[in-house]
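ok so I'm stuck.
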Amino acid sequence: TGYEESSEQGAGADVRDVPETFVSDGGQPSWEQDAAREREFREEPNVRTLAALRDQRAQLWQQERAWLEESARQAEARAAQLEREIRAEREAEQLLDERRRRVRERIESLADQDAHDRRHAEACAEADEARRISEKAID
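replied:
not stuck anymore, here's the structure
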């Protein structure tokens, strides 16, 4: 079988040499075939079945370690991405708070009828003064 060929490589076999059947859909190693190898060893305990069991477990542990390291790397990357998103959301929230403050101030200034009347009276007085000055300059 294909396993016997790969078992000749021994415990130092590379994780990439492990058949794809050892990996489940989630990427983590599937230990399902380990039970079959262990049962084979228990039924026929000899050096060949022990070596096959040892080689398979070594490969599975290598896969498990690689999968855990990759999972940790992905989790760290996702955590960093979430931190960036949180910072961006906080910055956006601060900008919105500043804009709300400016809008409230503008609303308050426009809602103050006395202040509006004062500004109107000042603008009228300035316009009258400008008209008088221009009339003097023309005469």
